[in-house]
Amino acid sequence: MTESSILQCDEVTVAFDGFKAIQGMSLHLQKEELRFLIGPNGAGKTTMLDVICGKVKPTTGSVTFKQSIDIAKKKEHQIAELGIGRKFQAPSIFPSMTVFENLEIAMRQRRSVFTVMFARMKAEERERIEQQLVMIGLQDKADWRAGGLSHGEKQWLEIGMMLLQEPEVLLLDEPVAGMTDKETDKTGELLIEIARHRSIVVVEHDMEFVRNFASKVTVMHEGRLLKEGSMEEVQRDDRVAEVYLGKRRDADASRSTA
Amino acid sequence: MLTVRKLSPQRLWLLAGYAAAAAALFSAPLFLSDFRLNLLAKFLAFAIVALGLDLIWGYTGILSLGHGIFFGLGAYAMAMYLKLEASGGRLPDFMGWSGLSELPFFWKPFESFGFAVLMGILIPAVLALFLGFFTFRNRIRGVYFTILTQALVIITATLLVGQQAYTGGTNGVTGYNDILGESIASPDTKRMLYWVTAAVLVAVFIVCRYVVKSRFGKVLRAIRDGENRVRFIGYNPAVYQMVIFTMSAAIAGIAGMLFVLHVGIISPSMMGIVPSIEMVLWVAIGGRGTLIGAALGAVLMNWAKSEFSTTYPQGWTYFLGGVFILVVVFLPNGLAGLASKLKLSKTREVRSEAEHDGIEHPAV
Amino acid sequence: MEVITLQLFNGLSVSSILLLIALGLAITFGLMKVINMAHGELIMIGAYSTYLTQNIFNDYLPKSMFDWYFALSIPVSFLIAFLFGLILEMSLIRFLYGRPLDSLLATWGVGLVLQQLARSIFGAPNVAVTSPSWLDGGVTFLGAVLPYKRLFIIGLVALTLLAMYFYIYRSLEGRRMRAVMQNRDMAACLGVSTRRVDAMTFAIGSGIGGIAGCALTLLGPIGPSLGTYYIVDAFMVVVLGGVGKLVGTVLGALGIGVFNTMFEYWTNASLGKVLVFLCIVAFLQWRPMGFVAMRSRSLDS
Fold first, then answer.
1. Which parts of the chain are coiled coil (chain B) (predicted)?
2. What is the pTM of this model?
């Protein structure tokens, strides 16, 4: 692949107890690319993210990071340390800790027991966290227990945590679920801003959102790659229309229950 | 950690409280009888275990029902030294009864006090590291881990009972004379031992407090909240769990050594299933996730036990069972949780005029 | 040859008892994520129920009928333990769903109270239950004498297992139970009364514990702390077997029972236990969730 490739998934297959969630899926991601991954329910989108971040090991196929690192053999925390961040569908923050503490432990730093045991908060670190707090609009709630935040605020906190992690590849699973229209737009703009320095893969059901912010879209269907291209190309594709856009109402309905 | 300019009035009160508690702790020999002092010393040893247990249960969310074993192994290490000291070069009595003619090789180094103390910390720590290594790494956690710790208790206790010639069997190891040349029963030594115990308690408290306030402690709490999430941030929870479990076991071992000095006996029944789970109850009652609660819970429960269990043995068991149920179901954060709830509702009344939404304080 | 036959048979016998005890535990844990430490006391209740049945036969019925007390005591033990389980579920366990560690502690408290209660009623010393005469003796097989009592227990366990199988996999109630086990919220949405399913399942699990207690009376005297000897081993069966399927529990019980007997024969009782524990830890390196594992997509369940 080219110099600018950051993540390469080739012929990935994932089987759960005989059920093949992904069957020979390939996904190539460039540096500073914002990629949307769409497809009907059960297409294997979330599983694909799981494979990249190490939550699920591929049965066959390879996942290569930065052209040389074989991710399929690494553990989740190692993959995270390499620079692949993951945001889950349901906001997963640490509810009994304060917003500030959530950001503090997510912040990019050496994560060995010894370092963390004797770590002191540096002025520069505090500043970074405080800047992040402002960016995600939680500067007044830094001392709140994260569990007491609203759903949208939790989403923002998790995005903030992920940004402080400073990964090179961000994997986002339905980042705008549960957000208001205004927040959704803000998220979209943020993604474009982030993608100026990093690569992002977004799994999304909200077609409005995808249409507004996507440059390149990958469509999955039944664990396979169906179509890849710009939003216009994808929309023009007959097969996509058949399996996905034709059933748009289903997809929208499923989003509301997700 | 604390800088002078950060001392808010609240902090000052807290510090004053700690200072008063420490003063009371160290001056106790002035106004307690020898008997009471000895009891209190025993309770303080229990409070040390409770601190260690709280580190893993309260802060990391791992329930160990095996701390009786770590406590007991520490106690045995000290008991072996005391027994050899008392036997004065001859074979310890129970070994003769079991037909041994020579001191087993692994008993020999325990003639040294320093070695015994080292082992009292290392043996529990290594055992915990062993169990932790083979469980946390494979994500065996929650009740699975808890059940394994309980099995560890059973097999260790059976092993100690079964190897009578080496361990004293059911009777355990008892009959000590002196420690480091001083008579262990004399009031002066007892007072000294009390002070040592109190000092160790304060030291362990300070270490635990540092640990839970550090970023390491925050990662532990994050593991309690969502172990898998921690993984995707880039921490390896298994290593953190192993470290804190090992540390907790070492603390239990220290407590066990002190316990033997005050009580003068250790036997398998003092470290079995029931004592292990009672230790958890102390933490539960005092309040898991608060160090001071755990320590106070241990002292309070043991004081109550010494007051009532001999006079009303039946009633005590009912009480113990009842407290278990009530605390777990209705007071998951123990007395400390109750206290902070009362405090919170008071402050909330004042604040509710200004803010419509209830702010919850960080659970520290 | 005889030695091997006898050891295997003993292993099977121990397994069958472990299985009977672990069945109830595995089901309640799988279904409601509740660890019932009072299960040992339900066994004890079953055992004392048998003891009482025996006493009633002794005191009020003609001597010729005495031998049949045991046949009656099995359903009696089941029923009484079932009722205790039902009361326990409705008064306490229902508050502890999904909190395995808390449920473990609270039910340990319940166990403590029940033990003390038994001590107050029946006294602390063990009491003996006279086994019926038709279970005396044994059958000679490959040179070893296999006692009828142990054979009877194995048969009883097989029967209970079969009944459980039909209940879980063939009956309507069982289907509801499996639905709740796999997806509680969805089952509730579809109109399954999860409250009822939980209560029934817990009570049945307790009842099986009662049968286990009844079986234990054949093997020796019984006392208030009867259950505590078995409970940790039974939990190890659950850990080893995994949750969600009966077959896991069966394999777990067989594994622990047979290996325990073998190791104890080769070494001694205390070393044998250590070896079994090490084997379990080693096994979990290979399959951390036990023989059978249920997968879930959620991040932290």
1. none
2. 0.90
